[in-house]
Amino acid sequence: MNGEETVDGNLTGGDTSLLIVDDDKPFLTRLARAMESRGFQVETAESVEEAVAKARAHAPAYAVVDMRLGDGNGLDVVAAIREKRADARTIILTGYGNIATAVTAVKLGAVDYLSKPADADDVFAALTRTAGERAAPPENPMSADRVRWEHIQRVYEMCERNVSETARRLNMHRRTLQRILAKRAPR
Questions:
Q1: Contacts of 35 (CB under 8 A, 6+ apart)
Q2: Pairing, β 17-21 against β 68-69
Q3: How many CB atoms lie within 10 A of CB 168?
Q4: Which of 56, 58, 41, 49 is nearest to 21 (CA)?
Q5: Which of 35, 39, 51, 152 ranks highest by number of CB atoms within 10 Å?
Q6: How many CB atoms sit inside 10 A of residue 50's CB?
Q7: What per-residue confidence (pLDDT) applies to 71?
Q8: Are the C-beta atoms of residues 83 and 63 closer than 8 Å to each other?
Q9: Same CATH fold, 144-182 and 5-128?
Q10: Average of pLDDT values for 145-171?
């Protein structure tokens, strides 16, 4: 950790600069407020371009970066931060978790990889965890139905919300896909 300690769930001492990068404005605002209340000096960015510029101007001690941003990939931000500050503790947030991107994020210097929606407590724990400390397994892991639904949503977004193309890539009937998309997400 960068010389900081946690006391009663708050950060104390050392460099507490934190860059949060996410293109979901309401989530970004909520997370920034929550991290400020835990002792961080928060800067925010809504794009890769803005985040890279801020990282090059003043590399933060901590960063929370969304994987997919409107103008590119959050991994570019991780690389830019690492270039300026090798000891920065960076975590990746994503709604589209997969092993390949998690491995790439860690190789670029991210210390953790969290799936959205992640709450402020999860983010704080990931940022302040010591090097040898392991994350606790989730108390309520996603159900198989939820994992399937998340995968379908990811492919649907990758296909720019084109039902026919999504159905073709998933090898399922278009009407079946339409019924799945019309339902709420399973728990």
A1: 18, 20, 42, 64, 120, 123, 124
A2: unpaired
A3: 13
A4: 49
A5: 51
A6: 16
A7: 85
A8: no
A9: no
A10: 86
The percentage of the chain sitting over the pLDDT mark of 70, rounded to a whole number, equals 82
Question: Is-contact 2 14, C-beta < 8 A?
Answer: yes
Q: Is the CB of residue 55 less than 8 Å from the CB of residue 86?
A: no
Q: Is the pLDDT of residue 162 over 70?
A: yes
Closest listed residue to residue 74, CA positions, set 24, 10, 5: 24
Question: Looking at this protein, which amino acid is placed at residue 118?
Answer: A
- Give residue limits of the domains in the chain: 5-128, 144-182
Higher pLDDT, 150 or 127: 127
66-80, 128-142, 144-158, 166-180: lowest mean pLDDT where? 128-142
For 6-42, what is each residue's pLDDT tens digit? 545 555 567 889 999 998 888 899 999 999 999 999 9
| Count of Cβ atoms closer than 10 Å to residue 187 Cβ | 9
Q: What is the CATH number of domain 144-182?
A: 1.10.10.60
Give yes or no for a contact between 185 and 149, defined as CB atoms under 8 angstroms apart.
yes
Report the candidate in 184, 164, 161 with the shortest Cα–Cα distance to residue 174: 164
- Compute the mean pLDDT over every residue in the chain, rounded to the nearest whole number: 82
Q: How far is residue 27's CA from residue 123's CA, in Å, rounded to a whole number? A: 13
Pick the CATH number of 5-128 from 3.40.50.150, 3.50.30.10, 3.40.50.2300, 3.40.47.10: 3.40.50.2300
- Average pLDDT, integer, range 84-112: 78
